[in-house]
Amino acid sequence: MTNVGEAEPGELSLAAEFGGASRAQWQELVAGVLRKSGALPEDFAGAPESRLVTRTYDGLEIQPLYTAEDAAPPAGFPGLPPFVRGAKPEGAVRTGWDVRALHADPDPAAANKAVLADLEGGVTSLWLRVPPASLADVLNGVYLELAPVVLEPGADFEAAAVALTEVLAEKEIPASEASGNVGADPIGLRARTGEAFDIAPAAELAVRLTGKYPNLRTLVVDGLPFHEAGGSDAQELGAAIAAGVAYLRALTDAGLSVEAAASQLEFRLAASADQFLTIAKFRAARRLWARVTEVSGAAGIGMRQHAVTSPSMLTQRDPWVNMLRTTVACFGAGVGGADAITVLPFDGAIGLPDAFSRRIARNTQAILLEESKLAGVIDPAGGSWYVENLTDQLAHAAWREFTEIEREGGISAVLGSGSLAGRLATTWAKRSQRIATRKDPITGVSEFPNLAEKPVVRAQSTMDVQNGGLPRVRYAQEFEALRDAADAYLAEHGTRPQVFLATLGPVAAHTARAGFAANLFQAGGLEAVNPGAVDDVVAAFKASGAKVACLCGSNTSYAEEAASVATALKDAGAAAVLLAGKGDYADVTGYVFAGCDALEALTALHATLGVTR
What we know:
The protein is of the alpha/beta class. The protein folds into three domains: 24-55, no CATH class; 98-411, Methylmalonyl-CoA mutase (TIM Barrel, Alpha-Beta Barrel); 479-609, Rossmann fold, CATH 3.40.50. The protein is built from 20 helices and 15 strands. It has helices spanning 23-37, 108-120, 135-138, 157-170, 186-193, 200-212, 224-228, 233-253, 258-262, 275-296, 322-336, 355-371, 385-407, 411-417, 419-436, 477-493, 507-522, 537-544, 555-571, 598-609; strands at residues 54-55, 61-62, 98-103, 125-128, 149-151, 180-184, 216-222, 265-271, 305-309, 340-342, 498-503, 527-529, 548-552, 576-580, 590-592. It has an eight-stranded parallel barrel with strand order 3-4-5-6-7-8-9-10, surrounded by eight helices. Helix 6 crosses helix 8 (233-253).
C-alpha cells in the first residue's frame, strides 16, 4: 500500500535491468556448446539448433526453443468448441478428474474385496473386465449412484447390459440417475481378435437403453488396440476417430439423433511417459472430434475421454520403475484434460495386481489431485508455445491418418484389408530399432538393470484382453526375453553367463568404458566380470573362466595394446573378443558403443555363450 503523496507504482517489469536477448545471440551460444562437444563442425553454416531438433514417430519436429514467434491457431475457450482447452468451462477444478480403477480378477469374491478397497481409498468409478454372470457379486456393497461402472464385456455386451440393469434395479437406483457405460465395442473387439463383428446390434442396444437410461452410455471407442500394436499417437487418434465415426453412422441409422449418438460414446486413449506428447494428444483428440461433430451437426457435444496409462510401456523386470512411468503419464493426461484416468498398477504387465500395487496406483492419482493440486487450474498447458504447436501438429497428423482410413473405406475396411496393421507395424519397426539401440532407453531393463532383483510373481487373469488380431507389444519385451534366457541358464548351471572386461591402461583410462560395457551386458542378463586394473589381463581372463572378453580402455590404450591383447585373449581360448568403442583392430570380433544395436550384440553373445531361449 502506498503512502500519501507517493506516486502509484508502475507496471512490474521482470528482469527490466537486463537487456533483451535475441534469437541470434542464443544461436551463437548454442553453436559454441555444440562445437565444444564435437556435435557441430567448425565450418557448419546452418542454424545450430537444427542439430537439436527431435522427431516423433509421426514425423513431428520438436524444436529446442519456442518463442512468441511460434504462433499456433487459437485454442478457443474451455467448454466451447473445438474443446481443445477442455470439455467443461470449469475444467476439473471443483471435483477433479474421475479416478477409475481396472479390475479383472475372475474370482468374484476377490474382485469384490479389491473393488471395495479401491472405493474406500479414493477411486470414483470402476472399469470391470469380468463375466456378466458374476457382475452382481463383484458389485456387492457398491453404491452405484456414487461410483459409476464401465464394463468391458467383449462380445457379451447384450448379456452385460442385462446384468448391469438388473443390478441397478436391485439397488433401486432410478433409471434417470444411472450412469456408466455398458462397454460395447465391436470395432475394438475386431482389432483385438481379427474376427468381424456387426456394429448394428450394439447400435440397437444403445437405442433401447437411451430411452430409459439417459445418462448410461453404451459404446466405448477403444484406442488401446492401436497403441498396443506399436502405433504412434497420430495413428491411435486417427483410428479412434474413424471408429467413432463408424459408430455415429450406425447409431444414427438405428434412429438416434446425432447429438444423442455422440453422447453415447466414450473414447479410451493411452497416456504415455512422454508427458508433453500426452498433454498434446488429449487436447488434439478433442479438437478432432469437435470437427467431426461440427460437420455432423452436433457441434456442442464434446469428447468424453478415458485415459489409461500405457500398457506397452510397463515392464516385467524392475517393475517398481513403472510407478514413475505411470505417474508421469497420469500427470500428462490430467494436464491434458482427460475426464477419467486409470493408472495401471506397476505389476500390471506381470499378472493380477496385489493389494499393494492397487493402493499405489490409486494413491498416485490422490497425490496429483489432492497434494499437487493438478486439477486446480483449467488447462494449465494452455498458452505454452511448445504445447500449442505440438497440439496443432499432432491434430493435423491424426487427421491425415483418419482421412486415409476413410478413403480406404473406413475402420472396418482397413482392419479387414490389413492396411492399418501394416502402417502400425512400420511404426513398431522404427520404435523397435530405437529401443534396440537404446535411443529410447528403458530404465531398469535396457539401461541400469539390476541382476540381483527377485522376479515379481503374480497370478494370471483368465479375463485378460483377447488377442488374435493386431499384435500386443511391450517396449521391453525383447530385452526381457534375453533376461529370461539368462536366468534359465543360471538355474541350470548355477552361475550366470559371463563377459570378462579386459581393462587396459590405468583406472582413469578404462573406468568409463568398463562401466558402459557392464551396463550393456547386464541388460542381457550377462554378468560383467571386472577385475579392475591388473598387471596381466590374459592371466586374469583365464582365471575368470569366462568365454568372452571385452576390451575396455582409452583410445590411446587401444592404439597401443588392443590388437596384441585381442590376439592373446583369442589364443587363451576366448570365443569372442569385443571392444568398447569403435575402430578396426585385428582379432576383435565385435564392437559395442553408444548407439550400437545392443539387442543384436546381446543376442549374438547369448549364442556364443550357449544361452538359449
